[in-house]
Design brief:
single chain; alpha/beta; Transcription Regulator spoIIAA
Length: 129
């Protein structure tokens, strides 16, 4: 699994994470180090866009949802909004399960494209209505 993570905007209010390839738990855990560091580097709310369009998620992700919900990044005080980009029915189902069972106060949305995710991040959207 390849991961790229960086600020999308100069104000450091939107982070873009792109995952490419097959997902596995050790790679996923390792890939959280950079976004945690970026969140640590600011003192304001951040929207994180997770581009999962070229990302193959294995079925065992369902058993990892509680660990994801309890991870340091999911609990980070600067993480205000997560927007998952995917048109995959499976990814959308997993995202909806996470939202309903584990998101708590964390705002999580799903968008079919990065452009739509950026619009949600900039102007509010489904989870902010």
């Amino acid at each position: 699994m390849k991961v790229s993570v960086d600020w999308y905007d100069q104000n450091r209010r939107i982070m873009l994470k792109r995952y490419v390839g097959r997902w596995d738990w050790p790679s996923f855990v390792k890939a959280q180090t950079t976004p945690e560091g970026l969140l640590d580097s600011v003192s304001h709310p951040v929207s994180v866009i997770i581009d999962a369009q070229d990302y193959e998620i294995p079925p065992e992700i369902l058993t990892k949802l509680p660990q994801i919900a309890q991870s340091r990044i999911a609990k980070h005080p600067n993480l205000a909004h997560v927007i998952i980009v995917s048109a995959s029915p499976f990814v959308n189902l997993v995202a909806q399960m996470f939202i309903e069972l584990y998101a708590g106060d964390l705002l999580v949305d799903v968008a079919p494209s990065v452009d739509q995710a950026l619009s949600i991040a900039h102007h509010g959207g489904p989870g902010q209505a």
